[in-house]
Amino acid sequence: MDAAPLLALLLAAVSLSAAAAGDGAHPGYSDEGTCTVDAAGAGVGSGPELRRLEERRPGRIIDITHAYVPDLLAFAPGAVTGPLVHLKESMANGSEYNLSELRLECHMGTHVDAPGHMNQGHFAAGLDVDTLDLDVLNGPALLVDVPRDTNITAEAMEFLNIPRGVRRVLFRTLNTDRGWRTVAS
């Protein structure tokens, strides 16, 4: 079956702020259970509700980050799970400061891969995430809504006919619906 004609294109310029302003940016799950540090330092729970800003300065930046939650899907078996944020030192417990620890593997949740992630030559050359140009990662983007039973193939990419000058393409896939909470098959 030819998957390319099934791709539905949605042009999502950063100026389309209305989609992110009123409701959650991720239809696959709610923001409930996002990580906060509670007064006892247990990691998640009863602290003040802190919500991510989905949008800063209307029409300029839309945050597409998935919420970091304790049961966040990890790429590798045996990856760090459980409380992501742990309060190591607490003023409420007599410390002179509050000190939090954030524990997660770098291939969890919304992320961008380092050039050396899948290329040993790049890895050996020290091409880490901090070598990426942030100007390339921020700005208007073409959003491709991939049908949930379709793989992204070279043929599908050719079918897109990405307009000249587009520097960023985002793919909304089945993982958006899964909310990064179940292991991919």
TrEMBL record:
Keywords on record: Extracellular matrix, Secreted, Signal
GO biological process: L-tryptophan catabolic process to kynurenine
UniProt subcellular location: Secreted, Extracellular space, Extracellular matrix
GO MF term list: arylformamidase activity
Domain of life of the organism encoding this protein: Eukaryota
Xref: Pfam families: Cyclase
Cleaved signal peptide residues: 1-19
Family, as annotated: Belongs to the Cyclase 1 superfamily.
Record PANTHER family: CYCLASE-LIKE PROTEIN 1, CYCLASE-LIKE PROTEIN 2
Name of the protein this chain belongs to: Cyclase family protein
Organism annotation: Zea mays (Maize)
Gene behind this protein: LOC100502334
